[in-house]
């Protein structure tokens, strides 16, 4: 029996287009998961570091004469060389040739689905779409600069299409499967593609996300010489002393479904997407110059389509890249947009600023194609916690920004997210691509109408609950137990039923298994702590399932399951499950109690070191290159011959788009020519 459809309070005039976010996962600098990501935001941590020497030694590429300290900094994910290849049935040979962006996104998508309480078998063969933002091709370049030969998996491991297609293949998904490359706005544009595909009937649900790995110095050097990067490694969004951004990594995934379907299914709804829009800057002074008119039109169209009351917007997660030119342009576009929205709705201008402005780039840097995901997930977590994190390094407001008489204020310290009206909290998220593709997504908190609570079927109170956990190895099983032990203090006693339901029907049963029969959270915690200490208490069961067939026929175990449940003999049920029997847990529930978001799978850390560079890329000093630099404007005028252009830093994919993996990677060409000259 499905959960009832519930009436939802909204800040919009329509509900048919609403899309629920039912699964989330992510890894960002200094944060292996979203819990750590939120903790870092609330503690106002700046996670920018020097570039790890395992990636490259920045000193080899910084030009002392030009004081290129901007090439020194970055935001890095610690586990870039780790991947659980066995879990995904990928050979070490193939995994070594796979771009870490593919590896990390496989793990992100798996944990996103676990967060949603969805098993791969539940969506296999479904019209689920896959849309992923990607713009960086560093691993292909690194392979070409190493002694690694071109092998059968080089192509599939390093093309953008395979990033999405590998997910569709592994999970047997039949919807659209598309990489999206619009530079910095890639992952928010991917969200827009997913929403349109669902609305147009091309898919029933979607997995969407973004990836960005920093593995080569090419783009770092190019962006530094273009005046885009901060020499002191601080992204000072909206500050008078802003001097560029810091490049960063990120890997994230969302699972999206129509809101009505998510409610019917009893999903945990993290937030609701009310609308989105995408446009282009058009013809400007240069390819990378922002256009306030285009940004304003982007926002107006988004809020008009979503029919949003501007008074409900309590926060804008801005692109906020920390550039003296683009930051004021973005704020001016927001001011003009909200002024027009208030006029269109025939509302008086707000007397008190009600909408915060901020940028996550001040905390973690600019994660390229995954930047939109970092911004969106920050907002989703802020909605859940009803708190706005601070934007760092904003000490002296940019003199080109004036917020007087506007709805806006900068969030410079963690602030409770209050609402003046009887409407859900609502926010906008912006991302602007370096080449001019702009994207905006409108997100709203999910609230149920308490007046409908009496219509819900009463949850059956059981004397005890069977909590099941499994993993591919004994080590991972122990890690799973530890994760849940740490998570239990966040739960209430009323969550125990949903905990059992989620773990029984929202996880893939694996070989190494443990089951606990508990009457309450305290007893469950004691049993799990004892299990972790190898001091097993009563009502704790453990087993390893091989490839041998089950001892009982399906009809026999079904009858026994019903009998054990009726007699309250959950211990027998748990013992049968850990021994490998296929238990139909749904018979335990008269109605769907709903799912809980729980910690993701603790993947094994198989080590796949980055290929050693056989020769470093040859970068000329800026003084030796006929390129006119414009400092912090982020634009430059190239005065080169055609042959020189082909050897220039075309590997800078974050700004110009990707090219197919082949032997013409520019840095390799330069290096090979240098070798020939030396010979």
TrEMBL record:
InterPro entries: Ketoacyl_synth_AS, Ketoacyl_synth_C, Ketoacyl_synth_N, PKS_Beta-ketoAc_synthase_dom, PKS_NRPS_Biosynth_Enz, RhiE-like_linker, Thiolase-like
Alphabetized UniProt keyword annotations: Cytoplasm, Phosphopantetheine, Phosphoprotein, Repeat, Transferase
All residue ranges annotated as the Ketosynthase family 3 (KS3) domain in the record: 16-445
Ranges where the record places region Disordered: 621-679
Record-linked SUPFAM superfamilies: Thiolase-like
Biased composition (Basic and acidic residues): 641-653
Gene3D superfamilies, per the entry: 1.10.1240.100, 3.40.47.10
Keyword Chloroplast belongs to the record: no
GO cellular component, one term: cytoplasm
PROSITE patterns: KS3_1, KS3_2
A GO BP entry: fatty acid biosynthetic process
Comp. bias regions, Polar residues: 622-640
GO molecular function annotation: 3-oxoacyl-[acyl-carrier-protein] synthase activity; fatty acid synthase activity
The name this protein goes by in its record: Modular polyketide synthase
Species for this entry: hydrothermal vent metagenome
Organism ancestry: unclassified sequences, metagenomes, ecological metagenomes
